[in-house]
């Protein structure tokens, strides 16, 4: 099986590398061509555009930022649709709108192609270690064909329904992640300003009901103000837009998600869109006029007497 991979960013490059390491013949394409060099040195073939990648591949995987990017690469000029042979399987692993995902899947079927939506969770470490959680929408037959590839890329692989269902579950995932990051940020700033070292807060919460994976995986981001992405805030904001649009379509109020969306929007307006999404901490700090510091118990007495 010859696999084409389009979009070699934070997630795409390590995912493509894992397929190469697993022995798949790999063709790659990225808009900024230099990002293909490393994988070409490791044995991949570079394509000139998505059309020529489609011509050379049995399966095409896309890992792009947003719905317009996926539409452009798949159905645009020199896109995958122009090159892919009938029967080829397209797997979009980007996080995009479920509505766009369903439309593209229908257009693929109309051309004799097959398509799955298979967004992921698990971030850069999950992409590097091949331990992503993959939520898949599409036909069972196509899911089974793609399964060996998913096994290379991820650990928790779930077929969640027909076309677009993977994107619906991913929107649910992003709602939860945003709420947790907001909650952890508030807890750390409150706890630290009230005099407790933030590392102790994380350690203590981790042993109880409030323990969660984000606090574990992103511990240093919070404690050391290390906001190198990771997952860019502007991409998470895009995902909350998808969730809110779905809420509107299905008549579901998402009040917590609306707050996360507005706070993320404020951070983007401050020029922090390219930072990791844990940079939410800095906004909560700014509103409290207090920056958390490990080990220091600044203002402890004063803060505690105020409670
Ligand atoms: P990223 O680092 O911004 O990478 C996106 C890649 O797509 C870049 O290499 C970019 O090329 C390429 N690209 C963008 N538009 C293109 C176009 N029109 N034609 C061809 N190539 C194009 O993003 P990422 O963090 O890897 O995220 C990719 C997707 O995975 C997003 O949908 C995101 O929401 C989702 N996701 C991310 C994470 C995470 O932790 N990062 C976790 C789960 C899911 P250039 O080099 O030219 O910009």
TrEMBL record:
This is 2-hydroxy-3-oxopropionate reductase. Keywords: NAD, Oxidoreductase. Residues 164-283 form the 3-hydroxyisobutyrate dehydrogenase-like NAD-binding domain. GO terms for biological process: carboxylic acid catabolic process; glyoxylate metabolic process. The keyword Oxidoreductase applies. Its EC number is 1.1.1.60. PROSITE patterns: 3_HYDROXYISOBUT_DH. It comes from the Bacteria. GO terms for molecular function: 2-hydroxy-3-oxopropionate reductase activity; NAD binding; NADP binding. It comes from Kroppenstedtia pulmonis. Belongs to the HIBADH-related family.
